[in-house]
Each structure stands twice: as C-alpha cells, then as structure tokens.
Sequence to fold (1050 residues):
Amino acid sequence: MKKRKICGWGYEGDDASPVLVEKISPYLGALYGITEKHAIQPKRTEEIRIRSPRFVLSNEFGGICTSDKLERLNHSYGKSYRDLWRAMNGLFDNPPDYVALPQSEKDIETLMAFATKNRIALIPYGGGSSVCGGIEPTDSKAYIGTISVDMRHFDKVLEVDKVSRSALMQAGIYGPAIEHALKPHGLTLRHFPQSFEFSSLGGWIATRSGGHFATLYTRIDEFVESLRMVTPSGIIDTKKLPSHGAGPSEEALICGSEGVLGIITSAWMRLQQIPQYKCSSTIGFDSFQQGVEACRILSQSGLYPSNARLIDSQEAFLNGVGDGAQSVLILGFESHNHPVNHWLDFAENIAVMCGGIKLNKDSSRADNQSGTWKKSFLQAPFLRDVLVQKGLIVETFETAMTWDRFDQFHRAIIQTAQKAISDYAEYGTITTRFTHLYPDGPASYYTVMARGRAGRQLEEWDQIKHAVSAKIVEMEGPITHHHAVGKDHRPFFEKQRSELFGRVLKASKSTLDPAGIMNPGTLIQ
Amino acid sequence: MKKRKICGWGYEGDDASPVLVEKISPYLGALYGITEKHAIQPKRTEEIRIRSPRFVLSNEFGGICTSDKLERLNHSYGKSYRDLWRAMNGLFDNPPDYVALPQSEKDIETLMAFATKNRIALIPYGGGSSVCGGIEPTDSKAYIGTISVDMRHFDKVLEVDKVSRSALMQAGIYGPAIEHALKPHGLTLRHFPQSFEFSSLGGWIATRSGGHFATLYTRIDEFVESLRMVTPSGIIDTKKLPSHGAGPSEEALICGSEGVLGIITSAWMRLQQIPQYKCSSTIGFDSFQQGVEACRILSQSGLYPSNARLIDSQEAFLNGVGDGAQSVLILGFESHNHPVNHWLDFAENIAVMCGGIKLNKDSSRADNQSGTWKKSFLQAPFLRDVLVQKGLIVETFETAMTWDRFDQFHRAIIQTAQKAISDYAEYGTITTRFTHLYPDGPASYYTVMARGRAGRQLEEWDQIKHAVSAKIVEMEGPITHHHAVGKDHRPFFEKQRSELFGRVLKASKSTLDPAGIMNPGTLIQ
Fold:
C-alpha cells in the first residue's frame, strides 16, 4: 500500500512535477528574493521521536486501534502552513496516542463508549486535509489521551439510485473512489475541492466544503440528501427526501459540525449526470473593479454559470493566464442535457458591457479542457510543499461579502495583509480570486506569499494570519467560506456568531456528546 | 380600519366573486351531491360568548395589550378546516386572554420577562394563516393564561440595498406591503404563497413557507440573508452575508422554528429584479405518469423553470384548465436579464418527448398573464370559505418524495385517501398537483374534497386527516413540505425526525426560552 507523506501532500514519491518547479523557481528569486538560506531541511521520519501512548488499550481494541509510529505521525496534523512547517521541522509534541481504524458502526460505538468512560478525546479523521487545525489532537488536560478515528475503511458506494440521481456512500470514501464508482452509471458527484484526492465525503460534509459549481450549488451541503451520524448518545439517521419543511433542518445541524457532535458514517448524496456539453470563455479586464461589476451582474442574471472565476492580474499571471496587467474572468457553462453556447453568449455580453475583452473561447463537447485544468488545479498542494520548503510563507484566506460593501472590505483586507507582510515578514504579495458567486455577493479568496526570516517563518505566519483574520471579522466578513473553523479560526468564529447561538451549539453538544469527548477544542470551546 | 373576518379569509366584506360561486355551484351538486342540508349556518359575532381573561395585566401593559373581544376571537384560530368549522359554529373555548400589539423590540422583551415570571404562554402571530394549529393557544394547565403577540406594527421595509439586491424588513409586514415598498426600486421579493395577502414575512420564515419558484429557490429560507430574533434569553442577530461556512448555519435553526424559540423581528431578504421577459406554455398528457416523467427529466435538466406545475386531469378540470381527461403541465420561465424563449423550447422538447402535447404558448414581456393568474390563485382561500360553509370537507396534504419511490408513494396516498373518504365521509375526490420540483423528487400536493354528514364534518375531517397523514409518514414522506408542523402535525413530525434531533431541539429551546413560554405545544412537546 502506498504511504502518505508525513510532511507534505499526497503519497510518498508523488511530488510536484520537476518541470513545473523548474519553471517557477526563477520567479521565487525575482519576486520574493528567496535563496538557499531560507529553505527548510525536512527531518527524516527516522529522526523524529514521539512520546509513547499515555494510556493502555484493552484487548478488545486490538483489531481496531494501532500505535504504529507512522500512523500516529500522520494523524498529528492537517495540512495548514503551520502543520507543514512543524512536520518539516520534526516537531510532533502532541500526537494522538492511538489511531483507530473502525470497520463498522459497532466499532465506532465501542470506541465512543470506551472514550466516554475513560475521558479520552476522539478525533474524526477523513483525509486529514484540514487547514485550520480541525483534526489536531486537543492539548487539554481534561483528557487522559486522544485517539484519531480514521474512517478509511468506510470507503464504498453502497447503492445508486439512477432515477433520482443519488447514491448512498460511506463517509470515509475519497474523491477519486466516488467518481470511479459513479462513472459506469453516467453519474458524478462533481465535487472537486483542491483536496479532492486526499479528502473524504464525511470530511467535506463536516466542514461544509466548497464545491465545483461557482453559482447555485456552491457547497457540499446542497447535495446532501440524507445523513447518518453515530454520536455518543446514539445514531441520527435522516430520511432520504428531496426536501421538507418540518421544523428546522436536521441536516443543517450536522453539516459544519466538524466532528464535535459525532462521526458521520454515510450519506445519500445528490448527483449530476456527466456533462456532455460544455463551453467556456476567458475575459480580460483592465481593472479588477470592472471584473467585480461583471461578476455582480452575472451573479444576478439567472444564467448560473458552473464556472465564474475572477482572478486578479497578479494571481492570473502567476498561474500562467493573462499578461500580468489584466484581471481575468474564466467563465464556463456545462450540461448533460442541452448545448450551452446560448448561455455563454449572454454571459459574455454582460462581461463585455462591463469593459471586458474576450481572450479566447472554447466551445466543445466536454472533457477537452477539463482534464488539463483539473490536473493543474490538483497540482497546487504539491507545489505548495515545494514553496514552503524553499522558505516561502504561504497562506490563504477565504471569506465572503455582500456587493454593496465589497470594495471597502476588499481594500481593507489587501491593506491589512500588505501591512502585516511588511510588519512581520520581509517581503511578499497578496492576490485575489473569486471562487463562488452569490446574487448578493462574492466569495473572495486571498493568497499571501511572503519571504520570511529563516527559521522564524512560523512565528511570522502566525502574526500575518492573525492580523488578516482579525480584519476580516472586524469588517463583518465570515472567518471562513468553506475551509471550516477548526481550532485555528475558533476565536474569530466566536466573534462572528451570536453569543446565544454559541450556547445552542454547546447545548446540542451536551445532548449528543454528554462527556464532551468528540473533537474537543474544535469549533466550540 | 378594515376588520378581519372571524370565520373566514380576508376582510369583512371581501368575499369570493359571486360569478365564480355561481359557476362552481352546479359542480358541487353534480360531483358531491351537496345540498342545503349540508350547509353550516355561521354564528354571528354577537352570538359568540368567550370567557374573561384569566389573569390581570398591570398598567405597564396598557399600551401594548388589549382584551377586546373581536381581537381575541381573531387570534383564537388559524385558517385550517378545523379552525373554520369551529369559528363558523361559534366554538371559541380557548381564546387568548389578551392580544399584544408591540411597537418595539423593547415591548417584546417586556412581555417575555413578564410571561417568564408569571407562567404565561406567548404566541407569535403574523397574519394568522396557519393551517396546522401553529397560532392556536395552548390548552396546557402549566400556564395561567396566554397572550397572542400580533406583530402587525412591525410593518416597514427599513432599508433597500439595490447593489446586492436585498432589503431589511420588519417581520410583521404582509406580502402586498413588501411588494409595494420594493416596486419603486425595480425589485421584488416574489414570494407568493396562497396566503400572500394575509401572512407576514416573519410567519413565512418561522414556517419555512413555500415560494413562487418551482425550482431552485423553492422556499423562503433561500432568500434569508440575515435574521434578528428576540428570545427570552436575549437577541440573536446574524450577519448580513451572501454565504458562509463557519459551523452549522445559524439561520437554519431559526427558519422553521415556528415561534418556539423566540420572535423574529426583522430580516435582510434577498430580492429579485422585476422580470421583464416571460414565457409560458401549457402541455397536456394523456396520463399523469407521463407528466411525472417529464417533470423528473425537467427537474434534472438544469433549465430551472420558475413555474413547473403538473396538475392531474381532475384538478385541472376543476380549475378550468384542460378537458378533464388530460393532466396538464404549466411551464414558465422568466428573467429581468434576457429573453427566455430558448429555455422554454428546450423544456417543451422534454415534455413532448415524454408524450406531452402543446396546448398553447404565451411568449411575451411580463405582466400579461401573471395578473390574471395571481388573482385567481389568491381567490382560492375565499372560495374555500364558500365550500366549507356549503358543507364540503376540504383538506390539503403537501409532502415530497424522491423520484424512485414516487409512484408507489403516490398510489398509497391516493388509495388511503379514497378509503378514508369512503370510510369516514360520504363521497369525495382526491386530486394532485406538483407545487415544486427538485432534481431528486417532486413536492406533491393533494386536495381532498368530500361531502360529510351534516353536523359531523369536523369529526370526519379529523379521521381523514389522520389516516392520510399516518400513511404519508409510514411511507417515509415528510408530514409537510411548506405548511409547517404546528400542533396538528406534531405527532407525525415526531415520527419523521430522529429522536436525538428532537432532544437537540428541546435543548435549544431550554437555552433560548428556559421557562418554556414560547408557543408551547407547537413543533415540540
């Protein structure tokens, strides 16, 4: 079996393409002044020492749990910058004591009963791709230890309902396995977060992951038909229904619960037919502002593009699109049912009326461009490993704002990030793109890349992260649009939600998890 | 000021058009054998006696509360068949002791503090159009009395954000006042439940009301940008945002809470631009089955019609559409942005491929047909008053089911209703339409009309209502798609939701309303 990397994305041996690394290396020097001295020398696994498990497991857990060092290392961190930096530097102060690999709901119930009785924290683990401390063990002294509960054996599509276009899937299944199982039926979940290859259905649902579609069905929540979750108090199993209006939504409590209420074990998911018609267009704008206005009108047009990604000039250039002077809007429509050129024509007209210039147009049956794009999109986390190792501080912020306040909000974030970079690091950039569009505002996504001082990058990252996050919340933006809260965003989430809703969440947790063993420290205190 | 009717829809003096009544009267005889002997002779208000308030209010409530007999009668019941029947028969055993008419959140807080201290139940009241016992006072002995809190003074659109297309509205505002305030801005909420003229924004949100759009934005929830709710524990005020992914949705807890957690006082609502382009088409099907299949493919097509109402042959005929042999699909597209004929062409092709026959087509700029349709749609509750008074038992059931199980589900409901009609009443019909379409299934809406035995209609209604509701839940359908739970559907809701979610709802209520004064008996026990 292929082994996951301890400090980096994907499997051992799978790295960013050397050609790509070669291509970007000159930019790192030119743009950020990165030299050899900034580089981190990753520790080899053999050099890393971790403490022994702090408690002993009885025999009944022999088949479920392991204390294997590699497994414990792999379950210590997610994939945030902080996580990568600590892993590369061999810092594993608080690994889980065991990793559980349950095969059945019964196994999970047994674990929960044991953990409840013995004050052990359980951490639901899907693909481990959290970038906000969502799967890191608690350091609270209230627990005698932690077990990371890896759902990898819940990896099947159990049933396909072609008529209603939905499928019952186990929660530990990863993106590629889902698509592989659905393809023979002509169906697809079409949920492609950047973590697609190494994240799980249950993780997507627990974190309200952001999906493929730029409009309408922006988040995994939209595709949840029903859910099954094991909690320390019992099992929640919601009905497979297209919709209902009886009371507050039961699924809405589970979506975004980040493992603090229980472990999602399976879900009926709404599917798409594989698109047969597809067309896309790239539009350039001399100013980002013009692109924003085009996105606003587009988002309110009722045309519902599947892709509508506005990328500012600098980020576009770094991604090999545009000339570095123009902001770029990538527009796409797709359908299994009908040609979509007509839709694209209307959308292009809107963009052109706002000052856009058509750069190219690709109108064809599907699968021409999508493969290329998908590959390059999924390369990004591999590439980040290279950047981090070379000494670059890399962080992303994803938020949302209504159109009326967007300009002000956007300017404040850019200015705050620029100031934080110059205050805390040496030199860097902040770039912007829109990942999703709503009729009342965009989800904007910011990427900070900065040259830090050798050996002090983590501290600098922390200061930049804090400054920008605080500004987002001060300007009334959400601390996350789809990366979740975890432990890292929790203090900001507390400022964003109402105090009473915090109490409701805690009351819900007390009901479902009276001993407070589920993922403590995440989402709520 | 115009006075609302005590037993019937709308204002005193506004009745169903005599022409319409004249037109349907022969059918009542022919179809249901309704004669004079079945008719109910409504009691005059002067004949109705109600008990005195069971507790005394201190002077501080002089400006907020009234014990006026008419007000108390008007706040005793909603508008279900049971409500109409009891009102017509002058049965008002359990009126609220007072009706409060708060002018400010401060007034509401004062009421809640008083009610908490004195074990008085408060019932949030918008337009009073509940058809499931949602605004009827509790008969629990745990309270010394009840106050119906009528939000009619919260009737303003406070702020319009044209850029993001949203508006801040007070929760007591009725449908027509919303549209009147938005029209000068070229905007519309476009939420037209049948109760539109006599229901409020807060009521729609609290009950997850069904909206204008047949696809995509089917329920008021979709248009809620942020909410403000006064609870006995304090105020919840959520952020005005296009979207966020931080934790479970706070708004989702409030939408559908039916007044048991607090009183919604205002909301930022997402709006539409007033449509300029509109086209529609009517398609006939020789079998209802064919129409269902057309709806399924349409719902999964990505065309998103604003209207897609499949009506079975009998219901179509009773509504003056079709020849009584064909089921009818009314299809409509609309846009402020672009002509929609192209969309309709694709949709019609789907219907024709499934065996549909185009009956007519109206392609025009907006406002031609919509006025006529809207008028006739809004006439229905007035007409129901006439039917009930003539002695007809009238009830609707609205539910939803995934496409794979729809045929079986539908047959079971029809058979159960037919059996219940013949077991409990004398003679009647059950007809079907689809009100909303989801990619994984339809929201189906059933209308039962039956001739009952003179004086025993309420008992017979109750038996039919129970038999069909029990079958819906037995077949795993939701007890409501958009009429809400109230007190009448609560036993069925309890079977539909998970037991643990019931406990979470109760824990949420204990947090926000520790004394349990808010709308007791509704939604949860």
